[in-house]
Design a protein that fits this description.
- By secondary structure, this protein is mainly β.
- It has one domain: 3 Solenoid (UDP N-Acetylglucosamine Acyltransferase, domain 1).
- It is built from no helices and 26 strands.
- The relative contact order is 0.09.
- The model has no long low-confidence stretch (mean pLDDT 96).
Length: 198
């Protein structure tokens, strides 16, 4: 762990976890074995980061969010309060013969989150799914399918209702382009994908 990391006394950080410079881990958070957190991450109160989870730089994991292994988060990802990234397609506590499941009895699958994407409060991302770069998952949504970059998705199950730019603001149509009202950035839609225009 770098000299500039901050770990509150009540946090539980495994010795084998690696925390980048400037990363802060707040009260009652748990960072499990072999997790890798980039520089300048902020892990909120009561958040959970599973074994081997990888976070890029400048990620913000809000209070009581649960990020289960083997999740992979790129730089600048926001995970809202009490959001959950799952890791089991067919969860059971026991096998068919009622013996307790062990690690050998199931196959972990993860959630992948692209650069700058945001997952709103109490949203659930059901693995395996990929949330594209700069996408926005609304609070309370349940994501069961991949989310395109820049997509704004809401509901249960989550569905795209629009597009957002890198500022997180919904884009508006302007001629053949989508435009961010905050930054003026322009995007072109090609089918169910969006790409920035030069």
């Amino acid at each position: 762990m770098g000299d500039s990391t901050t770990i509150e006394a009540s946090a539980d950080v495994a010795d084998s976890a690696r925390l980048g410079a400037g990363t802060r881990v707040w009260h009652l958070a748990q960072i499990r074995e072999n997790a890798v957190l980039g520089a300048d991450c902020n892990i909120g109160r009561g958040a959970y980061i599973g074994p081997g989870v990888v976070l890029g730089d400048a990620c913000k994991i809000q209070n009581h969010a649960l990020v289960y292994e083997p999740a992979r988060l790129a730089d600048g990802v926001f995970i809202g309060p009490a959001a959950v990234l799952t890791n089991d397609e067919f969860p059971r506590a026991v096998n068919p013969d009622l013996t307790p499941k062990t690690a050998a009895d199931w196959h972990q699958v993860g959630v992948t989150v692209g650069t700058g994407a945001s997952i709103g409060a109490r949203a659930v991302c059901v693995a395996p799914v990929t949330i594209g770069a700069w996408a926005l998952v609304a609070a309370g949504a349940v994501v069961t399918k991949d989310v395109a970059p820049y997509a704004l998705v809401v509901g249960v199950p989550a569905r795209r209702i629009g597009w957002v730019g890198r500022a997180g603001v919904p884009l508006g149509p302007q001629g053949d382009a989508w435009v961010c009202p905050r930054t003026g950035e322009r995007y072109a839609q090609e089918g169910e994908t969006l790409r920035p225009l030069d």
